[in-house]
Amino acid sequence: PAVRRALAAVGIHDIRITRSPGDERRLAAEAAAAGIETIVALGGDGTWGNVARGILESGIDARLVPIAAGTGNDFPHALGLPASDPAAMATIAAGAHAVRVDLGRANDVPFLNVAGVGLEAAVLEATGRYRLLSGSLVYVAAALPLLRSFAPLRASVSMDGGPPRAGTWLAIVASNGPRFGGGFRVAPGASVTDGRLDLVSVRDARPARRLQLFVRARLGSHVSQPEVALDRIARARLEFDSPPLVDADGELHRLDRPELDLSVLPDALRVGVGEQPASR
């Protein structure tokens, strides 16, 4: 009701309700193709990622305005948006200001915020058991048992045409924005407007050390640790022993082949902002 009132106050009355997975993508594509210039999306990173995919597929340069109502709600922080304030975001939706942001691509799946394999995807898969929790507590509760039991990935990582980097990995995350999981600063220096992805590769470690790295990731201090490599890339190829589970903006995808190609789509999407957008 608060969101409806805020939108109505600025003259926005055309509201569509999603009924099943994938509806956001379809509705966004239909709205953009029908000439709707601004699409307001109420949800979290998964919802916004799906809306971004729909806009991209439409070929129309519609503007996304996110309002937070999800679990993580991390993407708006990259632009300093007050996404948890429906009235403030409604005012932005009624205006015309926007910035262009990059999208990432994981094989054929565009993503707005992050895509990852390893522990990160396993944690997302486990979050369904903790629906009574909210925000980052969901991810913490799901992660703690996995820090002991998760079987690491063997993979070879090649970046921007360079030589492969083989290893046994706890997680590999391609980050467009600086944070995920309700506030974990996985790539603290990442920017959604720099034409690059921040590739964070974490080598496997003993369970106690895994826990230390997990705690450090909350503040972003994990990137200074010897198990962690951070590379700013335009593209990368990951080759695995078997097809892994991939998280793209909170949506899980099982690959049909043991390779994952990551790339950036510079300036691919317009996102609504105030007259003077805050920095992240």
Write structural notes for this entry:
With 280 residues, the protein is of the alpha+beta class. The chain has 2 domains: 107 residues, Probable inorganic polyphosphate/atp-NAD kinase, domain 1 (Rossmann fold, 3-Layer(aba) Sandwich), CATH 3.40.50; 158 residues, Tumour Suppressor Smad4 (Sandwich), CATH 2.60.200. 28% of the residues lie in helices and 31% in strands. The chain contains 7 helices and 13 strands. Strands 1, 2, 3, 4, 5, 6, 7, 8, 9, 10, 11, 12 and 13 form a 13-stranded mixed sheet that branches. Strand 11 and strand 12 form a beta hairpin. Helix 5 packs across helix 6 and helix 6 packs antiparallel against helix 7. It is globular, with a radius of gyration of 18 Å. It starts with a helix and ends in an 8-residue tail after the last strand.
Nutshell version of this structure?
This protein is α+β, with helices and mostly antiparallel strands.
- What is CATH's topology name of the largest domain? Tumour Suppressor Smad4
Query: β content, as a range?
Result: 25-35%
The level of helicity is 25-40%
Calculate Rg over CA atoms.
18 Å
Between the first and last Cα atoms, what is the distance in angstroms? 29 Å
Overall number of structural domains: 2
Instruction: Give the rounded overall mean pLDDT.
Output: 95
Shape: globular
What is the structural class?
alpha+beta
